[in-house]
């Protein structure tokens, strides 16, 4: 794994001291208490995109604090354990949208010698159990061909541009590697929960987003179309039904 400027992909100098500058474009990056902030310059997106993204991050952070067991990959959840086994983790693994928890439960099933890295906009202020970077899925701060497995553990429908996120995953994937995707799906017309928490009701839906947490929710058919547009083939798939309205789906895809 080699860190690279997320704006221009020039190799970055050693991540030492409190700040570094890219020799290619001059972008500057800083060290946080427990991670490097390798978020690209604001010019990368429009002001409206940044505003929507920041509101979604805020909403996500509230949900992680208020109800981590339902919003993060933690605890003894059957779906998380299944995804861990499905993903066949080995070699160098990158978790895109890893979340702020110190160690995702879906890391637990892995081959001996597996090494983990993570990127997420909310890491850096708290200590983690593996190396993480504050960064965007659409602008991964790594050189090409650095990872054997790239994970999207329930995160692909949270990004501003999931197609760009997949393209970035392909770029940093080594030949012979695979991308593992967890997709949660709630069908149209699903009844609302009988009880809604005050913290949830207080969150606003950002302009341009489908709901409080997702830019655009999509189901299995849309996911398969997204993979096809990215030039990815499905090499393995599992579908798990929760009830009449909800299901979750695993995909292992490769170029």
CATH architecture assignment? 3-Layer(aba) Sandwich
CATH topology: Rossmann fold
The CATH H-level superfamily is Vaccinia Virus protein VP39
In DSSP terms (H or I, runs of 4 or more residues), the helix count works out at 6
Strand arrangement, major sheet:
1-2-3-6-5-4-7-8-10-9
What is the gyration radius calculated from CA atoms? 18 Å
Number of domains: 1
Percentage of residues assigned to helices: 10-25%
* Structural shape: globular
Share in β-strands: 15-25%
* Uncertain stretches: none
Order of helices and strands: EEEHHHEEEEHEHHEE
Give the class-level CATH name: Alpha Beta
**Span of the ends, CA to CA:** 20 Å
Task: Provide the residue-averaged pLDDT.
Answer: 92
The largest pleated sheet is described as: 10 strands, mixed
Secondary-structure-derived class? alpha/beta
Find the count of extended strands (DSSP E, 2+ residues).
10
Structure description:
There is one protein chain. The chain has 255 residues and is an alpha/beta fold. It has one domain: Rossmann fold, CATH 3.40.50.150. It is 23% helix and 24% strand. The protein contains 6 helices and 10 strands. A 10-stranded mixed beta sheet has the order 1-2-3-6-5-4-7-8-10-9, sandwiched between helices.
Q: Quick gist of this model?
A:
With 255 residues, the chain is an alpha/beta fold. The chain has helices at residues 47-66, 68-71, 78-86, 162-172, 198-201, 220-229, and strands at 19-21, 28-31, 36-37, 92-96, 115-119, 131-134, 147-153, 173-186, 233-241, 246-254.
């Amino acid at each position: 794994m080699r860190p690279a400027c997320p704006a221009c992909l020039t190799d970055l100098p050693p991540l030492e001291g409190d700040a570094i500058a890219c020799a290619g474009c001059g972008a500057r990056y800083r060290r946080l208490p427990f991670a490097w902030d390798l978020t690209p310059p604001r010019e990368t997106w429009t002001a409206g995109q940044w505003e929507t993204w920041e509101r979604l991050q805020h909403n996500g952070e509230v949900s992680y604090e208020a109800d981590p067991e339902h919003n993060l990959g933690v605890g003894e959840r059957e779906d998380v354990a299944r995804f861990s086994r499905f993903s066949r983790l080995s070699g160098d693994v990158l978790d895109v949208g890893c979340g702020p928890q110190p160690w995702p439960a879906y890391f637990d099933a892995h081959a001996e010698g597996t090494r983990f890295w993570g990127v997420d906009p909310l890491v850096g202020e708290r200590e983690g159990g593996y190396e993480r970077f504050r960064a965007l899925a659409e602008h991964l701060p790594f050189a090409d061909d650095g990872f054997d497995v790239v994970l999207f553990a329930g995160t692909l429908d949270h990004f501003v541009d999931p197609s760009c996120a997949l393209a970035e995953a392909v770029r940093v994937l080594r030949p012979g590697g695979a991308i593992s995707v967890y997709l949660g799906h709630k069908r149209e017309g699903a009844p609302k929960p009988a009880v809604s928490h005050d913290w949830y009701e207080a969150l606003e839906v950002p302009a341009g987003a489908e709901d409080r947490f997702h830019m655009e929710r999509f189901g299995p058919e849309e996911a398969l179309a997204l993979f096809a547009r990215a030039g990815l083939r499905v090499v393995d798939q599992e579908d798990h039904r929760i009830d009449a309205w909800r299901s979750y789906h695993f995909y292992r895809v490769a170029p």
